[in-house]
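Model it.
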Amino acid sequence: MSEALRNLSLDHANSVPFQKHYLGRIVRADPWAIVRREKPQQALIDQACSIGHSMSKRRPIGLTAEQTASVASDPHVRRFTIQLRKLRPGSERHKNTQRDLRSLKQKLKRELKQKIRDDWTDEQAVDDIERQLQGIGFAEAMVDDAIRPQRPAQTLLVKALTALVGNTLEGQYQRRDNAIEAIVAFCGVEEGPTVRRCISSTTTVSRESAHEPSEGDPLFLATMSVFVDNPKQRPRRCFLCIGAALSMPRDDPRVEDKIGESYTPGDLSKHFRRRHLSKLRDNDRPVCQVCDMALSHKMHLQKHALAVHGTVS
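Modeled.
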């Protein structure tokens, strides 16, 4: 496409806007070879500028716990932290200082992560060459401890969906059937920190599989915290999520996510509407597993949430 046709299509008077705002900053040419009048190493340049290089599994994608903790040692963060301790909680200055501190930490984390990624990009090629010359091979990919490993049903689902295409028609049919069976098996499984959907049933949910937490147990304390004593009380935990946690084994890692607190009661209301109310159909009869009570319809759930658990929807 010529420059004139491009400017006409983009409604530009000249090529300056395209060069400033549209043209990529990565030069996909070999200027050094051009200056020396040698044959450009275009294959090497394409590999270095490709998306696959930036998406390498060995490339850092986040901060480790130690790197995240190092942000707290920044002088500005320490100054804001000291100021925050001297202010009265709930005051306007306390809120503003807390917001500024949070924004500063996020900014420092972004800058640190970008610096680590840039350093990796600059040093990884030299490191790979040195390891190859020594006969060591490439370094192992970094393992992100913050990401939980896939559970069995999710592992089977991923394997079935990413299976290689068969060479025969029967093999392709078998691949399709395996994928369908894996999806069907996964539909009834709750994976990771996702929120469980309200159960649609006309009968009361059985509590045989639920474990009764003892006093002092975090789940017991979380269960007690979702009951209000007066209409103005606003808890920050979701009673439906805690009800789902009651039916899980004690050692299930998802329990900790279920009983976690929202930052504010308003955040809990958003979670309740987005994760629970929006997924209810007209003929669904939700169940409050905390109260062991079947509800008639969606509005009944909303009234119960406000009157018993203080959750505004």
